């Protein structure tokens, strides 16, 4: 972690850089900076004393406020990652700006590209990955990056989902024969289905069932579709601006258990991801999970006085 003090200047990518902050903190880069999560992360990162928000990385620089020297609510630099390539590219910028942690909530393809840059950069940069929807090959690539880069990937950075997952595992171990249906509901802009969280919950259920044969996941039902004993129904709904709802229904002969988590806003995900960023800075290469952050009690709710 660094605590440098420099002036506004143009970097080698000809991008305006204003290292206006003298506060200590984890030096952060945010990808997908104008996306739904990117916007939430930028605004929250600017408020936290434990974080020094340095780079906003975006394909759409016009939608990210222009750098304003001496302003705490402006990103220090905007690097377009597509379009005209810069001289040094993302790797060079991570080095020039001494980035400690890159936080990524984008798309699977974009995120692999960013993690490649983090891995190649000549500085020790860690990554927090919130992106969901990876295929198996992309998941393996992330694991190989983690051999040389500290990476914490989580399909959901809310504390409530962490608790829900533990509760689901407990119920499934206690009531292994109960039928299970998983339903997730998200905003109409969400691309991947089922949600990353639903996939994680399905993995948790599988581990808790401890069966030699895995359950079949049935995605919705139509027509003549009687339920089979070993299947888990999976349902994805998309509507409006719902930040995220996950429901796990478990039913036996004459009783029903329902565990539901409802995200009130994207702030809960951003807060968890920024706690994770502070936790991972300076750690050794490896794949980490969000539980480690929660177990360590990392909580960066201290805000800048002027925010
Ligand atoms: N783990 C968690 O807790 C959470 C995970 N998510 C996941 O985070 C991801 C992003 O979600 P959300 O913010 O709603 O999505 P948005 O579509 O709002 O934002 C995604 C951003 O990714 C960037 N992007 C898209 N395509 C490319 C590309 N080809 N190259 C470079 N950048 C690209 C763009 O940023 P720009 O325009 O700045 O270039 C875009 O705005 C999703 O996978 C979602 O499931 C979401 C919420 C919580
Ligand atoms: O895209 C979203 O919005 C969300 N995505 C994550 C997921 O796929 O599980 C987490 C959260 O539910 C919001």
Automatic annotation (TrEMBL):
Active site: 186, 190
Pathway: Amino-acid biosynthesis; L-lysine biosynthesis via DAP pathway; (S)-tetrahydrodipicolinate from L-aspartate: step 4/4
GO CC, alphabetical: cytosol
Any one GO BP annotation for this protein: lysine biosynthetic process via diaminopimelate
Keyword field contains Cytoplasm: yes
Predominant localisation class: cytoplasm
Biased segments, Polar residues type: 208-217
Start and end residues of each Dihydrodipicolinate reductase N-terminal domain: 26-157
Keyword Electron transport: no
Region (Disordered): 1-25, 208-228
CDD domains, per database record: DHDPR_N
Biological role stated in the UniProt entry: Catalyzes the conversion of 4-hydroxy-tetrahydrodipicolinate (HTPA) to tetrahydrodipicolinate.
Known partners and oligomeric status: Homotetramer.
Record's protein name: 4-hydroxy-tetrahydrodipicolinate reductase
């Amino acid at each position: 972690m660094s605590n440098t003090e420099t002036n506004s200047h143009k970097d080698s990518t000809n991008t305006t850089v204003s290292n206006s902050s003298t506060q200590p903190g984890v030096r952060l880069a945010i990808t997908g900076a104008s996306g739904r999560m990117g916007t939430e992360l930028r605004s929250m990162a600017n408020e936290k004393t434990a974080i020094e928000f340095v780079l906003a990385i975006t394909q759409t620089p016009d939608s990210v406020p222009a750098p304003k020297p001496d302003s705490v609510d402006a990103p220090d630099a905007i690097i377009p990652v597509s379009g005209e390539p810069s001289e040094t590219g993302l790797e060079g910028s991570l080095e020039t700006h001494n980035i400690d942690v890159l936080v990524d909530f984008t798309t699977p393809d974009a995120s692999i590209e960013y993690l490649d840059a983090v891995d190649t950069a000549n500085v020790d940069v860690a990554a927090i990955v919130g992106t969901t929807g990876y295929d198996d090959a992309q998941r393996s690539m992330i694991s190989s990056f983690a051999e040389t880069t500290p990476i914490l990937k989580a399909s959901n950075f809310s504390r409530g989902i962490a608790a829900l997952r533990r509760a689901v595992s407990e119920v499934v171990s206690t009531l292994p024969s109960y039928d299970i249906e998983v339903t997730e509901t998200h905003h109409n802009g969400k691309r991947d289905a089922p949600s990353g969280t639903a996939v994680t919950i399905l993995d948790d259920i599988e581990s808790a069932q401890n069966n030699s044969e895995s359950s079949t996941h049935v995605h919705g039902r139509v027509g003549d579709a009687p339920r089979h004993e070993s299947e888990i129904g999976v349902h994805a709904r998309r509507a409006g601006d719902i930040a995220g709802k996950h429901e796990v229904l478990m039913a036996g002969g004459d009783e029903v258990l329902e565990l539901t988590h409802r995200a009130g806003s994207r702030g809960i995900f951003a807060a968890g991801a920024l706690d994770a960023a502070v936790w991972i800075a300076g750690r050794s290469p490896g794949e980490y999970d969000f539980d480690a952050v929660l177990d360590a009690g990392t909580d960066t709710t201290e805000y800048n006085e002027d925010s």
